[in-house]
Amino acid sequence: MGFLRGTLVFVLSFILFLAFLFGGAFWTFSKSLEYEVVQPQITNLSLEISQKMGLEKLPIDDPKFAEDVYYKNYGCNFIKCLKEDREYLILVSEKSRNYWRNLFKWSIILSVIVFALLFLVVKPKNSALVISGILMMGASLIYKEISWISSLIPNEFLAKFFQ
To answer: What is the Cα Rg of the chain in Å?
Structure first.
């Protein structure tokens, strides 16, 4: 394999790895934001907030509140709502789920295109399958060990982002 072909295989493999890695994250976000998953969490959160504040009940304990938040028609796109309008409840809305699902679809399209290019570049054609399989396993191992990876990050560092 020449230098040019080897470099191209490396670059395509790196892009394919990133597509697998981010595609997995986008799929996870999308699946975790389905209404059946979000609704009980919003109710539990409202109970926790009311207990911490010493109140008996907050109005957000109403099950209809979860439905209103999830299906609310936000007048902006996902990023604009977060950055400019500071609509943080959009993070647990159908709009957020659709945003992550669309990113997942684009990562699948990118993966297929990069795999096709990788298939054209490598000499023994079955090497493209081996390379993509190894990259997919590598990307999935990161998710399997995410709790160990997150334990390496100090809690004080994470606390800065959640204050």
So the answer is: 21
Whether 70 contacts 49, CB under 8 Å: no
CB 75 within 8 A of CB 87: no
Instruction: State CA 157 to chain mean position distance.
Output: 21
**Residue pLDDT, tens place only, 43-68:** 666 556 556 656 555 555 566 777 77
Per the CB < 8 A criterion, the answer to whether 38 and 66 are in contact is: yes
Here the tokens at position 6 are 């080897």
Dihedral Cα 17, 23, 28, 34, nearest 10 deg: 180
Instruction: Pick 95 or 153 by higher pLDDT.
Output: 95
Residue type, 67: E
Residue 42 Rama label (left phi>0; alpha psi -120 to 50; beta): alpha
Cα 148 to Cα 28, 89, 135, 139, 156, distances in angstroms: 18, 29, 20, 15, 17
Among the listed residues 90, 58, 60, 88, the one whose alpha carbon sits nearest the alpha carbon of residue 73: 90
Most confident of 55-59, 103-107, 144-148: 103-107
Calculate mean pLDDT across residues 14-43: 86
Residue boundaries of the structural domains of the chain: 13-145
